[in-house]
Amino acid sequence: MTRTEYPDAPRLAVGGVVIHQNRVLLALRGKPPAQGEWAVPGGSVHLGETLQAAVERELLEETGLHVQAGEVIYTFEKIERDSQGRVRFHYVILDLLCRPLDPETPLRPADDVLDARWFSRRQLAHIPVTETTRTLLEKVLPND
User: Fold this and answer.
1) Residue 107: which of 61, 42, 40, 54 has the closest Cα?
2) 62 and 113 Cβ atoms separated by less than 8 Å
3) Closest CA to 100 of 60, 144, 44
4) Distance from the Cα of residue 2 to its chain's centroid
5) Shortest CA distance to 88 belongs to which of 49, 31, 50, 36?
6) Residue 100 CB burial class (10 angstroms; 0-12, 13-18, ≥19)
7) So what's the pLDDT on residue 4?
8) CA distance linking residue 55 with residue 19, whole number of Å
9) Could you tell me where the DSSP H helices lie in the chain?
10) What are the residue ranges in the chain where pLDDT is below 50?
11) Quick check: 95 and 72 in contact, CB under 8 A?
12) Shortest CA distance to 25 belongs to which of 96, 101, 107?
């Protein structure tokens, strides 16, 4: 397994943007980076795995939700340095639009996720959301 903390190269990760009934699925991160913040659920791409397969696997692992992954809709980098200036995390993250296959199924947060919930645009103003997630959702989430 590759190291995610203090890596020797950037790591590729995916996120799943799932919108259902004008609400978006977010996960409360339980580990760094973004620990304690709500973000699009997702994680690392495994060797030999397509982007779509990776995001479908990660959403099932983290939230219990089955999705069909579509196209990449947002790309960004997450680079975090420690107090000595060393790169602690470096991710290149591709967010894919996903269609929920079983949206009424109760969410089951697991893996490195503390909670998973559906949020409207209005609710986002009252929770700690990562800056990149907020920027993305302002573009794709319908107004309440």
Assistant:
1) 61
2) yes
3) 60
4) 19
5) 31
6) buried
7) 82
8) 15
9) 51-63, 131-140
10) 1
11) yes
12) 107
Q: What is the pLDDT of residue 3?
A: 72
Q: How far apart are CA 21 and CA 48, in angstroms?
A: 34
Distance CA 55, CA 46 (A): 10
In CATH, which superfamily holds the domain spanning 11-140? Nucleoside Triphosphate Pyrophosphohydrolase (3.90.79.10)
What number of other Cβ atoms are within 10 A of residue 120's Cβ? 15
Per DSSP, the residues of 66-85 read -EEEEEEEEEEEEEEE-TTS
Contacts of residue 47, defined as CB under 8 A and 6 or more positions apart, other chains included, come to: none
Task: Please give the pLDDT value at position 2.
Answer: 60
CB neighbour list of residue 3: distance below 8 Å, 6 or more residues apart = none
Which residue ranges make up each domain of the chain? Answer: 11-140
CA–CA distance, 137 with 95 (Å, rounded to integer)? 11
